[in-house]
Amino acid sequence: MSCVVSTVHLNSNEGSGGLVVAAFFTRNGHSSQSVRRRIVKRSKQERIVQQSETLIVALSGILVLGVGSQWIAGHLKIPSILLLLTSGILAGPVTGFIRPDALFGHLILPVVSLSVAVILFEGSLGLRISHLREIGKPLFLLLTVGVVTTGVMCSLAAHWILNFDWSTSILLGSLLTVTGPTVVGPLLRHIRPMGRVGPLARWEGIVVDPIGAVLAVLVFSAISSIGHDDVPNVAMTATAGFIRTFFVGSAVGAFAAVGLRELLRRHCIDDHIQSPVVLMIVVLTFAASNLVVHESGLVAVTIMGVILANQQSVAIGHIVQFKESLSVLLISSLFIVLTSRLDLNNIREFGWRGPAFVATLILVVRPMSVLLSTIGCQIPFRERVLLAWLAPRGIVAAAVASVFALQLDNGGDFVAATFLVIIGTVLTYGLTAGWVARRLGLSIANPQGVLIVSAHAGARAIAHALTKVGVPVRLVDTSLENSRDARMEGLPTYHASILSEAIHQADLGGLGKLFALTANDEVNLLAAARGAELFGKKECYRLSIEAKGTDRRDPSKEVLAGRVLFSEKATYAELDKAFAAGRIIKATKLTPEFDWEDFNPLHPDALPLFTVDEKGVLTVCTSDDSEPPQAGQTVVALVTPNQVPLDKLPS
């Protein structure tokens, strides 16, 4: 046996970072070279394990920061995008904890593109064609005149303020025509504006995203071709490309929507895999449309979502819920990933020009765009002002800017300018839009209106009673007959399921409470749970659950969703009997001379429903109420008519 001492130098990239001295014993002609190979192989394996652990930590960090920001923002009652941006900047450029390019490599941009497609599809599932009756003209003008105005003025501002060359300025201007559902949707849920502002901003945010993305891509192609062709030919080519992109995207999206509807209608997809199959078809539609015409995929998935949302052949509520959860996850992760890629040095180099550019977009460009787009439209001035104060940029702008950055000489400055606009608009609108809406009278800090789940006769009677005491109401019901009857009685009604995403997209301005009044106890529980997402648990109420069989315990005490309306005995069946017996809902103003102690003997079987004080504050009577109505309040109760002698009626 002979001993060979060999020194093996391992490159730092292979995991050792120094010199390893080993004694190799060779015997029977065995070479020390095989031992060296085994050590190098072992070092590589250790490096792979170490890198895997690092990747796991980073990926977990993206998920924790993204979803955690959404969770904390919900508790703090602030727009989640504010915390997402802050978390991304801290995790990326500040601490270097997350490095997306090292994590994902060349996959980052394709993954972002697919995620944006899913987000746009989910957002378009909340668009209702019925809204276009009221907002069709201003929406069309916002998507045409508004887009052109925004693109031109942003380009001029980028050239004159940021000192970009004309090509980069025009490209940035075309990209900043987008707003985006990822930021507009959460803002609208936070503000809940009244009037047409909500539907207008929601439709604009979803539809303008593919328009802006396609426009930016075509502008980039046109700018790249100017050196090889004259300007008129380039302009004609870009225009033809824009039309072709939207035609192909619309056709592919419509074909996919009709095909998916037929698969669902014919029960070709098992129930337990319907949501994953829909996701598969959305991704397939996006990729197939892009293969036919570059960047037409976003148009295709948007059209696909709108068609599915407005068809009546199959129910898609469970699919919408799945897409909603997936969209929240994608939005959270994407904002962390894209913000982590930001180079703060590029933003610092702008100096005063950066804030001046953002201020110009907020104070000049957006108001001018809305002003020109609403000329001749019957939209009140205060609604125009609020609409002019709702144009935050989001995921699509960040994703497209990241793609262009790889092909531009000044790509870092281009991305920095885009993210500066995203951060500036999100901070400005996120922190002030609610205050502006309240100052304009389009939002209420403590809304008293009630969303009533059901539109049957008893629910309509309660809605009329609320309306008479000055409390706004909205009814939601899946029954066409009930919805029609409610509309004929002048009650605003949504024909939809309370569990669908359509409720998140509906006009909830002035509403702050939910009454679940259906005949189905399980639906009432689910409705109260959904209402907690909209208004908070404290303001969600449901009817008591009737005890079954010989079990006389109150089942309502064993569940958490919703507070019990009126009384533990006020089940749907009992209220239905009361209305059938001719009992009516009566409103009575209590005074020091005629208080509750005077009212109660005159109506011994009265069931108090709610009270309204002199300031219009609604107090709902519940099963755990201990204090009786007070003087100065108007008490609304279910009573037997003609029970009070005429000589004892309050003056």
Descriptive notes:
- By secondary structure, the protein is of the alpha/beta class.
- The chain has 3 domains: 2-59, no CATH class; 78-439, Na+/H+ antiporter like fold, CATH 1.20.1530; 449-648, Rossmann fold.
- The protein is built from 23 helices and 12 strands.
- The strands form 3 sheets. It has a 6-stranded parallel β-sheet with strand order 5-4-3-6-7-8, with helices on both faces. A 4-stranded antiparallel β-sheet has the order 9-12-10-11, covered by helices on one side. It has a two-stranded antiparallel ribbon with strand order 1-2.
- Helix 19 (480-488) links the parallel strand 4 (473-477) and strand 5 (493-495).
- Helix 8 (197-225) packs across helix 9 (231-265) and helix 16 (395-405) runs antiparallel to helix 17 (411-439).
- The longest helix has 45 residues, at 32-76.
- It is globular.
- The protein starts with a strand and ends in a 12-residue tail after the last strand.
- The model is unreliable at 1-29, 550-559 and 645-651 (pLDDT under 50).
Say how many strands there are: 12
* Count of all domains: 3
Number of helices: 23
- Known CATH architecture of the largest domain: Up-down Bundle
What is Rg? 31 Å
Give the overall silhouette.
globular
Assess the beta-strand content as a share of residues: 5-15%
CATH class of the largest domain: Mainly Alpha
Portion of residues in helices? 55-70%
The order of strands across the largest sheet is: 5-4-3-6-7-8
Averaged pLDDT, please?
A: 78
The chain-level structural class is alpha/beta
Q: Any low-confidence stretches, pLDDT <50, length ≥5? A: 1-29, 550-559, 645-651
CATH topology of the largest domain: Na+/H+ antiporter like fold
